[in-house]
Design brief:
The protein is mostly helical. The protein has one domain. About 75% of the residues lie in helices and about 0% in strands. It has helices spanning about 5-10, 15-30, 35-50, 60-70, 75-90, 100-110.
Length: about 110
């Protein structure tokens, strides 16, 4: 069985890979209480968020995310909470209609 890599590479873009890798590093850093892993995950996650900016209306959410990033250097838990809040603000535009999200997810799953 061969996997069609062209279809996978088209659906998984670099910006999504940065977001997922950064979230995984941050999660495992928090789980293992390793601040270096959390900081590196935050940097990769911030690069992914920066790559996902498509318009100037989402710059405000990125500023909130950057404030959370800088807060993690002194107040780790507070900084991560501010980052989570910024991601929810950023995703608010995409998650307005749960049925639209489900139909979009179904379309992505049927691509494979």
């Amino acid at each position: 069985m061969f996997i069609n890599t062209a279809r996978i590479s088209n659906s998984l873009e670099t910006r999504h890979a940065f977001l997922v890798a950064g979230a995984i590093f941050t999660f495992f850093g928090a789980l293992l209480l390793d601040t270096t892993l959390m900081f590196s995950g935050n940097l990769v996650l911030s690069a992914g968020v920066l790559l996902n900016i498509k318009s100037f209306s989402s710059i405000r959410q990125y500023y909130v995310f950057l404030i959370g990033l800088f807060l993690t250097f002194k107040f780790t838990i507070l900084g991560i909470l501010v980052e989570i809040f910024a991601v929810f603000l950023w995703l608010r535009n995409f998650l307005t209609n749960p049925l639209a999200v489900l139909s979009h997810t179904k379309k992505l799953l049927y691509k494979f």
